[in-house]
Specification:
2 domains; Jelly Rolls; four-stranded antiparallel β-sheet; alpha+beta; 210 residues; elongated
């Protein structure tokens, strides 16, 4: 019950309400690289990530992996599929050892109908995911490689500096070679330095399309 209290959607609940949620919940541990659910599977639970991190990705017709989002505990994952009762639109894999709370789908939906506080938090969670999906669409279909990289740096320069280029390229759905070419260009005009520190945000903004 204490672990559930750390989840944003349950923080407003009292002990009695949390006890009700706990009664329909089991926990499961997944090892690193384990699949939590596959694209196309039918959901049996609501999935709450208690520990660790996961990535959500789709696979295109060529077998290429398209990263949609990375989630870090504590958070709820893929609630739309469970709520609307349709097959998962993407695959979820653990980036490290993970622990999930699995809430029985039908019983949790009944609780949602009875509790407006939880329902409102679910709505907010879905809204955040819709905003993230808009960003994914923009990165994948609209922006060129330089704009993608510039927006990534602008959003969180420290994360960009400390993350592996391979992971960044996967997130942006570009090749590692393309990322290297963009970084070289940004270094040449003193937007970033050799250690990938951001030097000039104004110059960086020139590459960002709004």
């Amino acid at each position: 019950m204490k672990e559930l209290k750390d989840i944003e959607i349950f923080q407003m609940l009292n002990d009695e309400q949390l006890e009700l949620i706990s009664s329909i919940t089991t926990t499961k541990v997944y090892n690193e690289n384990s699949i939590v659910f596959y694209e196309g599977e039918s959901p049996e639970f609501f999935y709450i990530l208690l520990e660790g991190s996961v990535k959500i990705y789709k696979t295109d017709h060529k077998g290429n992996e398209i990263l949609l989002h990375t989630f870090f505990a504590p958070c709820i994952v893929a609630e739309m599929a469970s709520l609307e009762d349709f097959n998962f639109p993407a695959t979820c894999v653990c980036l490290q050892d993970c622990k999930f709370a699995l809430l029985k789908k039908e019983k949790f939906i009944h609780i949602l109908k009875e509790n407006s506080l939880i329902s409102f938090e679910i709505i907010k969670s879905l809204t955040r995911k819709i905003k993230n999906m808009e960003s994914v669409v923009n990165r994948s279909l609209i922006f060129d490689a330089t704009t993608k990289v510039a927006m990534y740096i602008n959003k969180d320069p420290e994360q960009f500096k400390n993350k592996k280029n391979k992971n960044i390229a996967n997130e942006l759905n570009i090749s590692a070679e393309t990322l290297s070419r963009v970084l070289k260009k940004l270094k040449e005009i003193d937007v970033i330095d050799s250690q990938l520190n951001l030097l000039d945000r104004n110059k960086l903004q020139m590459f960002i399309n709004f």
